[in-house]
Amino acid sequence: MFEGLPVRGMLVRLTDAWQDILHRREQAGGYPAAVKELLGEMTAAATLMQANIQFDGALILQIMGDGPVKLAVAEVQSDLSLRATATVAGEVAQGAPLSHMVNVNNDGCCAITLDPRNRQPGHQPYQGVVPLFGDRREKLEKLSDIIEHYMLQSEQLDTKLVLAANDKVAAGLLIQRLPLQGEGNLAGSGVVRRDEDQIGQNEDYNRIAILAASLKREELLELDADTILRRLFWEEDVRRFDPQLGDEGPRFACTCSRDRVSNMLRSLGKEEIESILAEQGQVEVGCEFCGAKYPFDPVDAAQVFLQPATQPPPSSGMH
Ligand SMILES: [Zn+2]
Q: Ligand 1 centroid vs 122 CA: distance in angstroms?
């Protein structure tokens, strides 16, 4: 928080949680380096957004791609437990730019979904979607640009993001101009605020955003929070809040369960499941996020169609 200014900042540095996500993927072959970088940046960005709005439920950041990366998902719960996965079908070259992975024909998009914790069946979660291009249809090559664009378009919020990820660390810095009144619609109020005259006009925000943008990728990956804040904002009056660590901080946790898989099988329909059983003897569903396997033999599968649904079916992540 910048004392006396309508500007808020937040820094995240994921180490164990991020390595846990990568580790779980290793037995399935792991991710190409460029995908790791994208997914790590998404995970850091989703964590920052969730910590920023403190939404009571899941914040899900997704990129639906039209290149070799079909889908990338980072999901962060209100307690900052998180998970992430990407579906890669095809070659991703070393150092491939974002557009080569997810926006070959400029048809990729980025969605942010807020799924309330106790959502009633039939209620749709709030979702905002933006394309992966800028105002002149130019392909955006940085995830930070895409999310800044989203924040401006959907939330009317000036936002500066610096993101970086490698094998060990996924990190991000978020600077945002605080809305003058009410809440952004990302906070679930459904009300679109109109203080657009302020956008890009606040000198304090602009100065701090420029300082933030001078942070280099390597610095973000390698330096601790104290050093980064001191270097960037030594002339600003920064009020720091205690970092959230351990059980209160970001950590890997998967929300998959046998119940959810049962619901998913139910939604596929009895016929579909019976044909898989006839072919393979059992149905096995793997969770793409954590690698858990849920086998259903014919007896289990029959059970699935005897009980009524207990939860809304999961929206994504299972196959
Ligand atoms: Zn799982």
A: 23
Mean pLDDT of 155-164: 92
- What does the pLDDT average to over 262-284? 91
- Residue 221: in which H helix or E strand, if any? helix 217-222
| CB burial readout 70-91, b (16+ within 10 A) else e | bbbbbbbbbebbbbbbbbbeee
Q: How far is the CA of 23 from the centre of ligand 1 (A)?
A: 13
CA of 260 to the centre of ligand 1 (A): 10
pTM: 0.87
Residue 287 CA to ligand 1 center (angstroms) comes to 5
pLDDT tens readout for residues 225-239: 889 999 999 989 888
Which protein residues have their CB within 5 A of the ion that is ligand 1?
Answer: 254, 256, 287, 289-290, 292
Q: Give the chain's radius of gyration (CA, Å).
A: 21
Cβ atoms of 104 and 66 within 8 Å: the answer is yes
| 18 has pLDDT over 50 | yes
Summarize the confidence of residues 38-44 as an average pLDDT: 98
Overall average pLDDT of the 274-278 stretch: 92
Domains of the chain are 7-252 (3.55.30.10), 258-304 (3.90.1280.10)
Question: Taking the C-alpha atoms of 313, 316, 317 and 319 in order, what is their torsion angle to the nearest 10 degrees?
Answer: 70
